[in-house]
Amino acid sequence: MVAVQLGPICGGIGGEIGDSVSRRCISQQKQGIGAGSMSLRRDPRTEPREKDDGFGLGDRCYPQLLDTSLDGELKSFLIDEDELHTYDDLTKVNPVTPSTVLKCLQARYSVKVFYTHAGCTLVALNPFQPVPHLYSPEVMKEYHCARQPQEFKPHIFVVAEEAYRNIQGQVEPVDQSLVVSGESGAGKTWTTRCLMKYYSTIAASSSQKCQNMIERIEKRVLDSNPIMEAFGNACTSRNNNSSRFGKYIQLQLNTSHLLVGASVQTYLLEKTRIVKQGADERNFHIFYQMMKGATEEQRKEWKIPRDQHFTWLPNADRTLEEDCFQDTVAAMGHMGIATETQGQIFQMLAGLLNLGNVTFCPSADESQPCDLQEEAAGFLRAAASLLHVSAEQLESCLKLRVLQAGKQSVLKPCSREECGIRRDCLAKLIYARVFDWLVAFINKSMCASSSSWCNFIGLLDVYGFECFVLNNLEQLCINYANEKLQQHFVAHYLKAQQEEYVSEGLVWSFVQYQDNQSCLHLLEGSPNGIFSLLNEECRLNRGADAQQFRTRLQRELSGNACMSWDTFSKQPHFTVSHYAGRVSYQIEGMVEKNRDPVPPELIHMLQGSQDSLLQSLFADGNADDSSGRRHTKVVTVVSKFKNSLESLMKILHSTTPHYTRCIKPNPECRPLTFKKEEVILQLEACGIVETINISAAGFPIRIPHLCFLKRYGLIANSRISWQSVEESEPEAGSDTVAHAVVAVLNEVLRCHSLEPLRYPGTRTHGSLVHCGETKAFLTHFMLELLEEHRGRARSQRASVIQCCWRRYCRRKRAAQACAAARIQAAVRSWLVRKEVLRWCRAATIIQRQWQGWRARMEALAETELDDVTDTEKTSWGCTGLSLQLSTHQEPVILWAWPVGLALASAPTVTVAMTVTNIQKMVSLFACLKLSFPSFSYKVETNQFEQGVASIRAQPQESIRLHLQRSPLPYSDTHPDKRGVTGFNQILLEKT
Ligand SMILES: Nc1ncnc2c1ncn2[C@@H]1O[C@H](COP(=O)(O)OP(=O)(O)OP(=O)(O)O)[C@@H](O)[C@H]1O
Asked: Which residues form the Myosin motor domain (predicted)?
């Protein structure tokens, strides 16, 4: 059983967080955080070099982590950018670099997926808008009842359920811690609330038997939230509901793993906020709740009239949803805080508001106390009456300091500034005690007796790493806490990495990986650490001199690589190289803040208060001892904080941790807006980048065997094994595949004269690659080598392919040419043969026709010649008939045989076969359309439709007979097409 009674609850720091300009300046300040300062063991090949990666990493970046050198195709092999949103685990992106991680987160955020694993860490992006379906009781039930919640989508409930099942499984260490971190507004409180609701819901649904008791506890656990938030949260420039303290909530489970109780431990309440608020910021919510929610009667009682302006209540006109007084009162009631006690608390708070309006005039004479300003006396009286102390005593305590001179005590008037400081100190003191009392009451109300619970789940909601323009003791403490948590995280993450390697059969450890121990040594080291020196300075009980303290720091710590100074700066300061960046701390006021002195007169006065509650708050009396002397041992803020942190770390070390990193995607708290520069800074500050560094120190690239062989299989000459892999399609993890992978890797290693791998084998330090059971583990350098060899192998293959292709093309072309020649020859011979045959046929026909025609012509001529006189005969048969036509000057020679032909064809209707010479003559004249001299003779012929179409007689030329249709078959075809004879011309011409 683990006793969870932690040290002092409130760190009691007089912080100035509100003072600090809340503009983050990590990127400006983290110059030169190198391997030296962080002592990270890095491969020389992967040593950081100055370069901007475009993601706001500024001048500190790790080229080995950037994927800019990867060409598009390799990038797409390693990771499919379109599918980035499907990656549930950031360490699975290839290669694991800040830019790929950032892209993956952005891709997921754009599709409204807000949770992503990062190895053993859960990254939660703040949606800045309600997503009710994500946190409904049904979803809780689903995760709780799932057989394997890890297989579900990443969710805060996976983490919650995992922790719960670890307890059920009783695997050592059984107790669990859920560490939720992130910067202001990232969603830590929201996440913690979700976790509390989850455990309350599953507790309520687990057993009907102890239902009443569980419901009571569950209600109290949930009711503690509004009370803690009302008193410990405030509206800041970064978050309307910003927790101004860190907390560790312990949910106590009994042997049946049922929630039986809870307790809360708080850290470092920002009590300065009571008296000083940043521009645009507010005091703690509870004051505004009172001002807005109190009844008239209560106002009167608490002396807070509606229209009264209180100096410590800026921006009172701004209304937030957190300003719900009745909810706080109801929660206090449920928690068991009696109405009377509530009234006492509110009276005290109202007293503080009135105290804030008490102001002083400077005193003309140093030996005289300062006077109150005009209206201040009324506020002082009101404050005194609300605190149940006498107004005179209050005034005296604020104006006069008690000096101890031996056994004598002397009253010394304070300056105006000192009066103000004493007033502020009183307010801070009271508020811090009220807050502590509330936390103690809540614990008393929720905490189960130590015998009734045996295991716990702790929820740690702490400030994230802080770096403002001005940083002081608060930031030093917060960043120290973050360094401690980071060291714890790194150890845990390395263990997780180690486990994965072991599961892959890789015996290798990060033994030489050095974490942030040197930075922690600088802060907490004894006797030469910043805190030790600071405490010593407080104990010296001398006036705090910043320059003097700086010189001391420089003298004692100059050898530490994590410490540096800007020698040209006028403000005394020192710079610490934290894991998340360099932060400059101003020394001015640091010693005083660490001392956090409380004037004993104030404690005395409060111890004498008539208000029982106020009196009890100071009953332990840490002012003077019974002899009236001050305690010699000063318990400084740093000591208190360090002690409570040490007990927290002890608890964390004894539990199984689960880390959740909340990320604020944009500083304006706009819904669904992702700003890369903001996110990368936070990834760095919350250690995700460090996780990546660790990953890079091991094997940042992990490729499943089959994928590996598909890409790099061609490198090896063992083509047979590759083919066998392809053909047999073996399962990933089989020896065949692993041996094929090893063959490829050894091929590359051999070329570089590096020691070959053995499978199964171990990785020695300095080696570049390991073949696991299902994956090949590669360094970036090995990936480069593989890519180079792949490129070379591809070039060789390409040359071979080109040669083969060219030869193939050449051969193909030759074969085609040969075939074409043969086809051409065959076609030509076929055409010639065909042509010859046609010619033969044509010649035969022509011959036949010609012979027939000649015979007919001869016969016709014979017939015609038979009918003419000898002279005519001679004239027709030999030289042709010469006629003197009246219309022509010159005689026209008509060749006898064409005229005969014309006569044979023309007078088909009207010219009878028995025509006489004169009739023929008349017929001829009619054909020629000549007027016959002696008588008018009209012959009607159809010569224009068939036979002779026209007969044209030109002077000095032969008559041309134009026939419509040739009487001869094939007469339109000239045998050799070399010219046209008169005959053919006559025959071929058409009208
Ligand atoms: N998961 C979520 N779903 C919806 N809104 C959320 C979620 N997480 C955070 N928010 C919103 O972001 C705001 C800031 O969250 P929260 O107060 O938890 O931040 P924080 O990290 O605790 O800040 P601080 O350190 O200042 O207390 C919340 O008020 C809420 O509106």
From this structure: 85-791
Paired sense of beta strands 573-578 and 563-564, if any = antiparallel
Nearest Cα residue to atom 15 of ligand 1: 187
User: Is the Cα dihedral 128, 133, 136, 139 positive or negative?
Assistant: negative
Residue of 179, 189, 197, 466 with the most ligand 1 atoms within 8 Å of its CB, for mutation: 189
- Tokens found for residue 588: 């001015």
Q: Which of 579, 578, 667 is nearest to 186 (CA)?
A: 667
Distance 242 CA to ligand 1 centre (A): 8
- Dist CA 191 CA 178 (whole Å): 10
Q: Reply yes or no on whether 343 is catalytic.
A: no
- Interatomic CA distance for residues 681 and 402, integer angstroms: 49
Catalytic residue among 100, 200, 233, 239: 239
Residues 6+ apart with CB under 8 A from 302: 290, 294, 346, 347, 350, 386
Closest CA to 796 of 716, 733, 726, 720: 716
3-state secondary structure labels for all residues of 757-813: CCCCCCCCCCCCEEECCCEEEECHHHHHHHHHHHHHHHHHHHHHHHHHHHHHHHHHH
CA of 352 to the centre of ligand 1 (A): 29
For the CA atoms of the chain, what is the radius of gyration? Answer: 55
Answer yes or no: 185 catalytic.
Answer: yes
Residue nearest to atom 29 of ligand 1 (CA): 241
Report the separation in Å between the CA atom of 189 and the middle of ligand 1, taken as the mean of its atom positions: 6
Residue 189 annotated in active site: yes
728 counts as catalytic: no
Express each pLDDT in 110-151 by its tens digit. 999 999 988 778 999 999 999 989 999 999 999 999 888 887
- Which alpha helices (DSSP H) does 665-713 contain, by range? 676-685, 688-697, 705-712
Computed from CA positions of residues 582, 586, 591, 592, in that sequence, does the dihedral angle turn out positive or negative?
negative
If one residue of 190, 192, 231, 243 were mutated to test the ligand 1 pocket, choosing by the most ligand atoms within 8 A of its CB, it would be: 190
Is 239 designated active site? yes
Catalytic residue among 119, 464, 529, 900: 464
CA–CA dist 87, 818 (Å, integer) = 60
Q: In this structure, what DSSP letter does residue 250 have? A: E
Could you report the per-residue pLDDT of 492-541, keeping only the tens digit for each? 877 777 777 777 777 665 555 667 888 999 999 888 899 999 999 888 87
Q: How many CA atoms lie within 13 A of 264 on its CB side?
A: 32
Pairing of strands 176-181, 581-586: unpaired
Among residues 953, 921, 948, 952, the alpha carbon closest in space to that of 937 is found at 921
Q: How many angstroms separate the CA atoms of 768 and 256, rounded?
A: 49
- Separation of alpha carbons 770 and 758, rounded Å: 9
Q: Which residues are annotated as a binding site?
A: 182-189
**Statement: the pTM of the whole predicted model exceeds 0.90:** no
Task: Reply yes or no on whether the pLDDT at 790 is more than 60.
Answer: yes
Q: Active-site residue among 116, 243, 272, 693?
A: 243
Binding residues for ATP: 182-189
Q: What burial class does residue 555 get, using C-beta atoms within 10 Å of its C-beta: 0-12 exposed, 13-18 middle, 19+ buried?
A: exposed
**CA 191 / ligand 1 centre spacing (Å):** 8
CA of 964 to the centre of ligand 1 (A): 108
- According to DSSP, the β-strands at 121-125 and 656-663 are parallel
CA–CA separation, 848 vs 914, rounded Å?
30
Whether complex ipTM tops 0.90: yes
| Residues with C-beta less than 6 Å from any ligand 1 atom | 126-128, 130-131, 182, 184-190, 239, 241-243, 662
| Statement: residue 838 has pLDDT above 80 | yes
Phi then psi dihedrals of residue 627, to 5 deg: -80, -5
pLDDT at 567 over 80: no
